[in-house]
Design a protein that fits this description.
Amidase signature (AS) enzymes; eleven-stranded mixed beta sheet; two-stranded antiparallel sheet; about 475 residues; alpha+beta; single chain; 16 helices
Amino acid sequence: MSNDFAWLGAAEIAALIRDRKASAVEVMRATLQRAEKAQAALNCFITICAEEALRDAKAADEAVARGDAVGPLHGVPLHVKDLVNTKGVRTTFASHMYAENIPAADAVSVARLKAAGAILMGKTTTPEFGHMPFTEAPLFGRTCNPYDASRTCGGSSGGAAAAMAVGVGPLAIATDAGGSTRIPAACCGVVGFKQSLGLVPHDMAPDTFGNMSYITPTTRNVMDTALMLEAMGGADPSDIHSFGASTEGLVEAARGEGTLDGLRIGWRPYVGNTVVDSEILARCEQVADALGDLGAIVEPMGDDMEPTEPMWLVVSTALWNARFADQLPKWRDKMSPTLVRQMAGGGQHTAEMLARAALQRTAIYRKVQGWFDRYDLILMPTLSRTALPIQERLFDPIEIEGKIVDSIRKAWYPYTHPFNLTGNPAATLPAGLHSDGLPIAIQLVARRGADAALLRAAAIYERAMPWDEYRPKVAGLE
């Protein structure tokens, strides 16, 4: 049965362990074996903590044997992106600067998942400090797409999405500051959910007041996303945006009961961009029709957005420069050239430019909230084309159906970073395979705070258009 664990959901694995139909040690051994194979094929882990994971799995089995009360994720394997602190387990931020960093405490999200019973088994790959939409860094190399090793897995949570796509555990912590959960989830055919700002406290954000980064779940199904959010969410004094946050009803919503009768959905093919792959556009239109068949009222939306990338870049590159510029004399030669180049740009931004970016963020926020005067959800592509070639360069224009278009952030994922700025929840969900063999994804966006409504709609879509038969063919991981 060990290979069957690979494709089970978190609730199923926890139930097997609670009912003594499988042991946590048995599940963890199978997961670690699969992780080693995934690492050899894809390079998706920076650290695999097998000894600690098996120790904790043994303790989980002992708790069941004693009849202790256990949490909803008891014994379930978890991996964590290497931008998120894990107590006693190396956390490198994919940087030589932190190659031997051992945190003294877990991030709040990790601690809460552990309290629910999840067991940490590894740290997944990311570009250095999560600075780009590809997953490569001088510290560890490059992570491949499990559907096609010549394509990127996306980024910056590429290791999490790639591992999830090949069945390495049901739970992954990712992060998302401009699409870093949703881009790789879309590239790899899994579920990526960026919750409302503050729902999950971000105690590692260097600027809590102006934060646009999120600690997020990556899973293979909607229910596991809800289980993670319920465990991780809720107020914490480390995050000003988390005050008043509630996770009530998320798991119940993810059961996806009923229909979408009366739900108003805006179908929006463009968000400040002009070119989308024709197959992706056609598939999204099929999804729009299917949602209509489920009872939703689906209407097309025009595009009233300017590209948000220029303003996003002002804020992001200035922050990277402020955080790491003093490290350049010592570490420049061992840092990612793409990060150093963006820091240099950030060093040119004036106080007036940063203030103007803050004003623009407010205007974007108000514009997006206005969409929900008419609609309950917005449907759009997650990416304008499937996964880019793995050697694609960050500052070059991309190609869509033979046409050279704009820069990567403007032309490939204009659909993701607006909602980091506005705080709206946004979920990327699998929508089949392209003729090139790579995953296609849709994105659903909801009102700020309507995470439960978004989960319910996503679960109903999942039931109507299931994606569990889409699995990459990777040697040794079938």
